[in-house]
Amino acid sequence: MDLTQLRKTALEIFLAGVQAADPETAVKNYLTRSPASNNLSITLSNGKQRTQAWSKIHLIAFGKAACAMATAAQEILTSKPSLMASPGIVVTNYENVREVPHCQVFAAGHPTPDSNGYQAAQHIAQRVGEAKSGELVLVLISGGGSALIPYPPSPVSLADKITTTKLLLGCGATINQVNCVRKHLSQLKGGGLTRLAAPAELHALILSDVIGDAVTAIASGPTVADPTTFDEAIEVLNPVWQQVPATVRQHLEAGKRGEISETPKENDPIFANTDYTIIGSNSISVNALIAAAQEKSIKPCLYKDQLTGEASQVAEDLVDFALKQERTAPMAILAGGETTVTLTPNPGMGGRNQEMSLAFALAAREKGLRGDWVFLSGGTDGRDGPTNAAGGIVDPRTLTSIPHPENYLANHDAYHALQQGDALLQIGATGTNVADLQVLLLLPTSDS
After folding, report:
1. Helix (H) or strand (E) segment spanning residue 439
2. Quick check: 223 and 193 in contact, CB under 8 A?
3. Which parts of 109-227 are beta strand (E)?
4. Are residues 196 and 82 in the same domain?
5. Furthest-apart CA pair in the chain: how many Å?
6. Which CA distances in Å does 137 have to 101, 127, 140, 206?
7. Contacts for 82 with CB less than 8 Å, ≥ 6 apart
8. How far apart are CA 107 and CA 98, in angstroms?
9. 447 in a structural domain
10. Each residue of 159-174: b (16+ CB within 10 Å) or e?
11. Is residue 164 part of a domain?
């Protein structure tokens, strides 16, 4: 197998992981309707069924997979007699927008919130606020939901929240830290959507992009109790506190003093008639990588299924791991997770997967990873950072086409480096999002 074929094989294994998170299939696996009645059945995470003939159902979907999830749900809900109270509300990013029958679709900004997302959030708040006892608010949640439905409390403006989000993304904050702040600057996140929907019942079908599937973190937990506090949000922002807009600082400090209600906690009665189901996740996709490698007669090795840390350091650690392997047969070292990048002033263009790919190529050269290998790191949504690439796919030839690649890495400009090395992973928007996947293929070496 030459390097060209090896690259193709790595891509096929990666795409098997993406396919495992297909949102339409996932929704239909967990949402069914009895043909003989109006009963709707929702499969819970424990395998049991939540079945009822709700008088009306309000369909709300947001995230990168929102259109696909809503399409599947509305097929079930609009079969006669229709259960949908009115057209559903669907919010997704610009790359994944498409028409959904019986739904009003909004395209909004991600990862930076924009005015379209704010308008969509207002529509969602109004709709769920109209739900009554005996009705169901069916919420379809996927990755990206936090940024797509910004609804800051007065006097925090959308511009203030955008500034705060950019500061968080640029200072190396983890996704959980980012979401902690988002929850305390939102009327929907951190259980806020459930608070607005009460006394109606609520169920969320969730396509998880959060490592470990912590529902409080997925899309900033709009339908579940929030364990974080105003104190913690202030602590997360501490490294950039003086740059944070004054309205945001004032709002968070007022919350810390108890002048503003905390996000709803676990014992709040608004959660009495709510539930959720995880219908897809990074771990499911990692298992699909393993199966795909086995189908190709390549020995799989799970490196980590909850990969976190600084992208460039993670790449070096992975090279060290590869160097220790006995390469007597084709081998696939596989991982899934979500790394971070701590930006320097005036960074270039790229994302965590592109940075990891470039760093891997550099570390492989420096540490002497011999033989033929291909490393792919990509986002399952098809987009890595504010670029048109899902990530990178590198091999021993990549750096020969990039002048001074270490300078690009230092400036966090992996996109332009990989572009020169014909190493950008470009697959287009996938319509799903379950974080990132990594595939490292190693061919046998002569001395193994």
Report:
1. strand 436-442
2. yes
3. 136-141, 201-207
4. yes
5. 71
6. 18, 9, 10, 14
7. none
8. 9
9. no
10. ebbbbbbebbbbbebb
11. no
Number of domains within the chain = 2
* pTM for the whole structure: 0.79
CB 404 within 8 A of CB 365: no
Give the integer Cα–Cα distance in Å for 333 and 303.
Answer: 6
Residue whose structure tokens are 């006669």: 80
> Two tokens at 416?
């332009």
Phi, psi of 335 (to 5 degrees): -155, 165
Domain that holds residue 308: 3-14+283-442
Mean pLDDT in order along the chain per 10 residues (448 residues): 94 96 92 82 90 92 95 86 81 94 95 92 97 96 91 95 88 84 95 97 93 88 96 96 97 96 95 94 94 98 95 98 95 96 90 98 97 97 93 98 97 98 95 92 83
CA distance 95 to 41: 32
Residue 231 CA to its chain's centroid (Å): 26
Q: What element of type H or E holds 352?
A: helix 352-367
Is residue 219 exposed (0-12), middle (13-18) or buried (19+ Cβ within 10 Å)? buried
Spatial distance between the Cα atoms of 244 and 229, rounded to a whole number of angstroms: 18
